[in-house]
Amino acid sequence: MTITEVIKILDARVLCGNDALTQEVSTACGSDLMSDVLAFVKGKTVLITGLTNIHVIRTAGMLDIHCIVFARGKVPGDDVLREADEIGIVALTTRHTTFTTCGLLYTAGIRGNNDRAQPD
To answer: Which of 89, 46, 88, 51 is nearest to 70 (CA)?
Structure first.
């Protein structure tokens, strides 16, 4: 699925990265804990979060996260968006909650990565 399709499904607004909307994504992760994102995310992933700080962008930059969706209509500051744009990450905002956003993407065929979801 392309990021353009994600935008349609979520009725999202592009905050930065207009030139990269044709990138493919295949998995999604909904989390506000960046340590969980670091532990579980791999592949062409959409990160869904309510956090709007610079740590979200830096975490995404270390992984193969092509797109960040800020839930509940949240919009990060210009410094955060500038950094996302500089490293080529598309940032979107949607009015949906994190739960609903994950459900909409799941219904459309996007899955999570359960490779490390087993208890320790």
So the answer is: 51
Q: What is the pLDDT of residues 85-104, one digit of tens each?
A: 999 999 999 999 999 999 99
Report the alpha-carbon angle 42-114-55, nearest 5: 45
Match 């207009």 to its residue by tokens.
18
pTM of the prediction? 0.91
CB 10 within 8 A of CB 110: no
Which two structure tokens, joined as six digits, stand for 100?
Answer: 């609903």
Q: What is the distance between the alpha carbons of residues 37 and 35, in angstroms, rounded to a whole number? A: 5
Ordered by where they begin, the domains of the chain are 3-107 (3.40.1390.20)
Cα 15 from Cα 81, distance rounded (Å): 7
